[in-house]
Amino acid sequence: MVDKEEYRERIILTASKIFSHYGFRKTTMEEISRALKKGKSSIYYYFQSKEEIFEAVVLYEANQLRTRLTTAIKEVDSPPDKLRNYIYVRMKEFAKLSNYYNAVFDKNLDHFEFIERIRSRYDREELAILRLLVYVGNNRGIFAVEDSEYTAMAIQTMLKGMEVPLFWRKREMDINHRLEAILTLIFNGILKKQ
Amino acid sequence: MVDKEEYRERIILTASKIFSHYGFRKTTMEEISRALKKGKSSIYYYFQSKEEIFEAVVLYEANQLRTRLTTAIKEVDSPPDKLRNYIYVRMKEFAKLSNYYNAVFDKNLDHFEFIERIRSRYDREELAILRLLVYVGNNRGIFAVEDSEYTAMAIQTMLKGMEVPLFWRKREMDINHRLEAILTLIFNGILKKQ
DNA sequence: ATAAAGATAGAACAAATGGGTCGGAAATTC
DNA sequence: GAATTTCCGACCCATTTGTTCTATCTTTAT
């Protein structure tokens, strides 16, 4: 019983790798079970369907993302560094997750509503983080913004803009360049001139 | 007539992207044609089969690899730098090609003999390059090896060893670390002590 | 303008693939 | 050794997929 839950996690870990590489559609139960060295039908002892596995995997990835981001922030102290770290890790992680976008937008595929729930929850959390970041930076006299809330929203908007190429599966390109551009833009617009 | 050959190339370019992402099996004709904004059956006007496209794509990639490697060598002058550049680019490129390994080893899939032909040809060319590199370095008094031929073979063996994780699809990991380790090993074992 | 040749796509098809079910065999626990 | 948990091979059937065929555009040549 406890064991069962344990094995479910092993399945999630394995499936996570395959899903992230091939996306929902192109990942087969056969593949997942083969990677686990189990029979295909055995998987159905732990999960009811492919979609249920996918849901668990997405949830898992979301938690992974959260911890990676929070540790990235804790690694440094100054608000600009925190922001820089956060954006950098966020970009890297989202690039890795880009194959999941397929599932979200694959027409003629049941619209996984749970993804949107997770997403909107993440949006809220991210906004809180950014708001705090800006607020603290402001208090320390490093930033100089009128309204932390709206500034945070603006930053988040830019970050979302960086995801668009992932949606459009136009991967490729000068990812670091764009990162620097965005960072300097944000900082120059945000740092107190002296 | 000339046009036809031109469009074949466009197909190769497009298919190349999809194949390199998903491998032979998981790439469908439907996908390729959709990416080209053509009907699925239209592709068969230019190629006889999916495998024929794949063959053309592999050939194309092989040529790409060759030119990337030779330019990487020409970019610098000193033999150690050339060697470093060569190994670095080789590793990056092979990592990108890793999805093609699937096709090579997919049992119950006709063994694409042409891949092995291309591979063995590349092996010969690589050996020649390495041999020359070692030889020149030796002449300039930077390297100090007895037999360029056998040293080149040894180096090539190590490079092939670096491919093993790709075969085993155990991707991941400290790729740069291993690169540095291999480089220092090769250099320290090869450079004339002074 | 019209015939011929060059391209294209839609429909149809046979083969395979893939998600899921089921009965029962192993393995484990009690 | 019975009961329960875990596993799997065989099967089902809906969908996918590579490929063919025919009909229809489009361009070129006459």
What is the CATH topology assignment of chain A? Tetracycline Repressor, domain 2
Share of residues in helices of chain A: over 70%
Radius of gyration of chain A: 20 Å
CATH architecture of chain A: Orthogonal Bundle
Task: Give the SSE order of chain A as H and E letters.
Answer: HHHHHHHHHH
State the fourth-level CATH superfamily of chain A. Answer: Tetracycline Repressor, domain 2
Number of strands of chain A: 0
Q: Class of chain A in CATH?
A: Mainly Alpha
Morphology call of chain A? elongated
Number of helices of chain A: 10
What share of the residues of chain A does DSSP label as strand, in percent? Answer: under 5%
General description of the model:
The structure is a homodimer of 194-residue chains. By secondary structure, chain A is an all-alpha fold. Chain A is elongated, with a radius of gyration of 20 Å. The first copy, chain A, has a single domain (49-190), classed as Tetracycline Repressor, domain 2 (Orthogonal Bundle), CATH 1.10.357. The model of chain A has no long low-confidence stretch (mean pLDDT 85). Chain A is built from 10 helices and no strands. Chain A has helices at 2-26, 29-35, 40-43, 50-74, 79-96, 98-105, 113-139, 148-161, 164-167, 175-190. Helices cover 76% and strands 0% of the residues of chain A. In chain A, helix 5 packs antiparallel against helix 7. The structure holds a DNA duplex (30 and 30 nucleotides).
